[in-house]
Every structure is written in C-alpha cells, then in structure tokens.
Amino acid sequence: MAKILIVDDEVEIRDILKLFISASYENEILEADSGNAAIDVIEENMDDIGVVLCDYRMKNGNGGVVYNYLKEKKFPFPYIMASTDTPDVYEEFATLEEDHPLNCGLKKPFKKALINEALDKILDGDK
Q1: What pLDDT, in 10s, does the model give residues 28-56?
Q2: For the chain, how far is it from start to end, CA to CA, in angstroms?
Q3: Distance between CA atoms of 62 and 37, rounded to whole angstroms?
C-alpha cells in the first residue's frame, strides 16, 4: 500500500491533513516540515511513496524545490500542491498537469471532499 507524504511547515496543517486522510484511507502517512526535509524522506522511501501533498511557502526549501526534485527523478509519483496559492502563480508549475496526469493543486483552506477526490484518482483502490 502506497505511503502518503505530507509536507508543510505548520504542524497544525499536517495534523488536519492526517485527520482527513486517515478517516478515509489506511495508507501510512509520512511527514516533513520543509522542502529539503521532504527530499530526504522521499529518498529514504522512494519505492513506497504514492503521492506527495506539499505546501509551497516554507523555509528550508519551498514546494518548488520538491517539485523540481521530482521532475529530475521523472515523477515516480504524483505531486499535489496544497497551498494558499494556486500552482499557476509560480513559474515552476507552468507544466504541472502535463508533467504527470495526476498532478494537481488544492487550495487552503482544505475541504475533505476535494482531498479525497484527488487521492481517489491517485491511490485507485488503496482505501
């Protein structure tokens, strides 16, 4: 069963996402508090991660750092930008949906139904 990586510098946001996700999915949830920490988690769990939900505005590596890293690795799994901004605000996300068909953006504040809709497409029966 694929692991879900949540990347956000605010522990409260990570906790909300974990609550939403664990209510509908049995997948193990990994966490990181910055883009650079997320890359470390990805490198340690590359074969097990099924999706990354990543904030953009963080110290010690923003969401673009994670996205560019995944692009370099040829997108082994989808990227969901989970932020107060939409992906089209940032140049590095200009080809977000073309780069991987399951990449998308979720705008804060999160709605559980939208998170589930995105994860349902990606995890395809991993509930």
Answers
A1: 999 999 999 999 999 999 999 999 999 99
A2: 9
A3: 10
